[in-house]
Amino acid sequence: MYSKKTAHRGLAGSSQPSVRSFTTPTSSRWAAINTQNALNPPSAYNPPSTLQRRSTGSGVGSGRASGTISRPSGTDQRPPFPIGPDENRGVVCAVCDSNNVNRTVGLAFVNVPIAEAVLTNVADTQCYQGTIHKIQMMEVSRILMQPTPASSVQSGLALRPHIEEELRGLPIVERAKPDWSADDGMLALQRVAFTEDLPSLEVAVKDNFHLLCAFSAAMKFLTDDMGIDFDDHSVRIKYQPPSDAMMISLPTIRSLELIQNSINSSSKDCLYGLLNRTTTPMGSRVLRSNIVQPSTLAVVLNPRYEAVGELVHKDGLLDKVVEALQKLKPLGDVERLLTKLVILPKDGSIYESEQAINNILKLKAFLTAIPDVFQSLSDVSCDLLLEIRSNCLPARADRILGILADTIDRDAAYATKPLELRNQRVHTVKPEISASLDIQRKLYEDFSRKIHDYVNELEDEIRVKVALKYTATRKFYLKVNAKDFGPQGPPSVLVNTTTVKGAIECQTLKLMGYNERINEAVHRAIVESDEVIKSLLSQIRPRVSTLFKYCECIALLDLLASFATSTRTYAYKRPLIHTDSYALVGGRHPILDSRGHNKCIPNDYFVTEETRFQIITGQNMSGKSTYIRAIAMLQIMAQIGCYIPAESACIPIMHSLFARVSTDDTMEQNQSTFSIEMREMALILRNVNNKSLVIVDELGRSTSTQDGLAIAAAMSEALLQSNATVYFATHFSELAKALAINIGVVNRHLRTVTEYSESATHVPVTNMLYRVAEGPEPEVSYGIALAKAVGFPATFIAHAEKVAAELRAEAQASKRDRQEMEEAKRRKLVANLVRQLKLAYVSDAGDEELMEYLTQIYDDFCAKMIGSIDDEDAIVEEDSNENESDDEGDGQHDGAEENMARVARKGQYAVRRPSDLGLFGGGTDDDVDDYDDLYQPGSAANAIVIDDDEEFDEDHMSDMEDMGNDYSEEMY
Questions:
Q1: What residue stretches are annotated with the DNA mismatch repair proteins mutS family domain (predicted)?
Q2: How far apart are CA 107 and CA 95, in angstroms?
């Protein structure tokens, strides 16, 4: 039995027998994570000293100077990761730009933690918004750039000033020109890419000079400066065409709260929080990436819809898939685990050896779970789920498990509790492979048994119940109830005592001695196991592509299961991808909808060529902002392959999404609300096109009313010219009236109802219906309503209402040109006819149904067009009487009257030229004459005559479509 003095002397001064040199766990851990810290710099608010020094690495055979890490100058030190929290920070980005008017940029993103590289190229604009957006979406930790020529800076062609301005706080590492070699980039790609991926990758990148230069610089930086060396054929390399993903601007991601709630960063009230029902970190990462970069490929989205539908509707399928995925949850991020296997180690620290054993045990558990995933998909029928199942064949996993079985003990399994994990580390390698390992294992077992025997002896000695506890830092320690000792306190044999919640945690000198000897045995066992594990890893690395394929399939399956869970929970419906139509019936804001179906009022969304610019008006708190935000979020959900909260949906694919909805001042950037509005609208106007969805909420309200209206009108005109789909919420009723004559503009409003009472003391109450309605917001005479409520005489109220109506009529007459409005109305009718005929042309309806539909749209068009002509002729006749037109003019008018009568009798289609061709580009008198020759009322060029005994057939339909197209072309 140890005396206090002997035990103390033995622990403090005894020399330890050496088996193999190794560093202490603490220092080894620091050395091992040093590289990871360099790849994951802290926030720019507290930059580490390592980012402010010069790198010491040098290029292999290049003789180049060391790279310099610098931060862009400026007072703003905002964090370089503005989207939201994410565990994925080890992304290095190399940027190679052409420095000329072509503005071709090659980008190489190497995500070190998951051993993945994404290569892309951007044909950018003058401000390099495409490049900056891509960097923001990938959330890089640092940017590699080549020296910028002075001539490019002076000419304004340089990319670096734009990156420094837009991505402040992000370290920029300048690399010498020899690092940027297309030949070296191709060689690096051929060395590290998966063998099965090489043929397609070589075809995709062989002519992308700037892309290969960027990849060369990225790989040299990782090898020379970061000490990261990937094994051969161990990196997933993906070529991503720039057109395959929707562009969502960073302000849009923030303002729509796609990834993070703007008020509470830990709240799940954001799109990512709503849809994240994933089980694995891989699935969560794919979901996040999809939300900020939705797909623009129908061949990607439609298979996802089918897979989600099958998971939802096939009995028991979703539950089996989720149950299989749950078995992978304790393993954490398997992709990061595989990365640790393929990065060749630089030293032999105890910490790295321990982690290698842990990784082997996790890998064994991962491969053991693959058959369960495969079996859960045994009854699937859709192509995507069948593809996932075929890529999860257990046979390939069994081959790798066979390699593990030759070295790893059959009962060894990954554990999460510290003591169990230590036991598994010691017993991972099978017995009789290493004699010295077996000796250390025997010592470990003997001392562990002695500790338990000693605790039993200690209980008898101090006559209280003693619990043996273990943590990774304190090792074995004792825990006793403080009340068991009474007022005299614990005996002197117990040292290092600490009272925690009525219990005494302590040790004894003898227990500390046992801990020391067990630690020694564990370290020696790990050192002896290290060579065996290294040999095992060298056999597994050539098969790492199979393991990464498993991870990709599981991540995609996890994503689809998450979508299916949300669909089943909230009764989502499948959207249909269509090239022209935009029809959403009963659409609901997904966040509000998740709080309860009764709290979210559904609304319809319809967009055609005639309604692509929708001005949304309404009172404050009527739901305008929610209405336009909902369409943006539903568009994103549809383009990530998820069902959406709507009764039915037909949605086109959008290539970009922009939102100007937030109105917060940014004091740290010295930017006012108005300044932010102008910056974000400038970004939108530079990038918007006919494949864009734009939502704008109350633009111009942060300045004076006059200036705000002028700015809103000017920007609305610019958005109109882009042919984008726009939802424009505003309080400027004048804006809706001014733009009403343009083709594509419609005004809708959010309905409200005001309740009145005959009681003089009752104040009128306005109820928000949160439903959209056609047309402008009704003008309500609140003064008259209040007068009625407080009891004015009925005759007074009636006269006041009559006068108010007359004044409104006069105001309308003075603000609008009726003839111009009628002409605009007819143009919309013709454009709508063309759209309907095109839809009918591609329809799958039967002949009878199609003929009935064509007859109906023909009758509707004729009725509306003749009504429009009647209205305009009434105006023309009124003007003729006032101006006393000459005889020739009267004759022409009479001819028009006769022609209209003939149209009414025979059901013809007739049109009149617009009163002002200059409205569409400044037509001349010759243009007007040419127009009259082509579209003279009653001429064969613009009339289809169907006699009473004739049937409407395909020839008539073709004639109508040709005339509609001709008329539309002439109009524009």
A1: 692-708
A2: 5
**Alpha carbon distances (Å) from 295 to 286, 301, 769:** 12, 7, 35
Instruction: State the pLDDT at residue 596.
Output: 75
**Are 677 and 792 found together in one domain?**
no
What average pLDDT does the structure give for the chain?
77
Spatial distance between the Cα atoms of 244 and 298, rounded to a whole number of angstroms: 10
Q: 650 forms bridges with which residues in the sheet?
A: 576, 583
* 10: helix, strand or coil: helix
CA distance 575 to 274: 18
Tokens 């990758």 locate to 201
CA 4 and chain centroid, separation: 64
Helix residue spans in 343-494 (DSSP H):
350-376, 383-391, 394-405, 418-426, 435-462
CA 712 to chain centre: 28
Q: Kindly report, residue by residue over 289-304, the tens digit of the pLDDT.
A: 999 999 999 999 999 9
Q: How would residue 801 be classed by pLDDT, with cut points 50, 70 and 90?
A: confident
CA distance 27 to 24: 6
pLDDT tens, 200-234? 888 888 878 889 999 999 999 999 888 888 888 88
**In this structure, are 744 and 609 located in the same domain?**
yes
Domain count, the chain: 5
Indicate yes or no: pTM above 0.85.
Answer: no
- CB within 8 Å of 752: residues ≥ 6 apart: 618, 619, 622, 766, 767, 768, 769
Q: Are residues 92 and 156 in the same domain?
A: yes
Amino acid 221 reads F
Percent of the chain scored above 70 by pLDDT? 74
6-48: per-residue pLDDT in tens? Answer: 333 233 333 333 333 333 333 333 333 333 333 443 333 333 3
* Structural domain contains residue 280: no
Which is nearest to 119 in space by CA: 205, 41, 43? 205
Alpha helices in 740-793 (DSSP H): 782-789
Kindly tell me the number of DSSP H helices and DSSP E strands found in the chain: 33, 22
124 near 155, Cβ under 8 Å? no
Cβ contacts of 254 within 8 Å, gap of 6 or more: 82, 83, 262, 662
> 8: Cβ–Cβ under 8 A, 6 or more apart, which residues?
509
pLDDT at 908 over 60: no
Give the 3-state secondary structure of 198-236.
Answer: HHHHHHHHCCCHHHHHHHHHHHHHHHHCCCCCECCCCEE
Q: Is residue 647 over pLDDT 70?
A: yes
Residue 595 lies in a domain: yes
Would you give the distance in Å from CA 432 to the centre of its chain? 53
Whole-number Å distance between alpha carbons of 881 and 549: 82
> Is there a domain that residue 536 lies in?
no
What is d(CA 91, CA 137) in angstroms, rounded to the nearest whole number? Answer: 11
Asked, for residue 506, whether it belongs to a domain, the answer is no
DSSP conformation letters of 456-504 = HHHHHHHTS--EEEEETTTEEEEEEEGGGGGGG-S-TT-EEEEEETTEE
Domain identity same for 163 and 38: yes
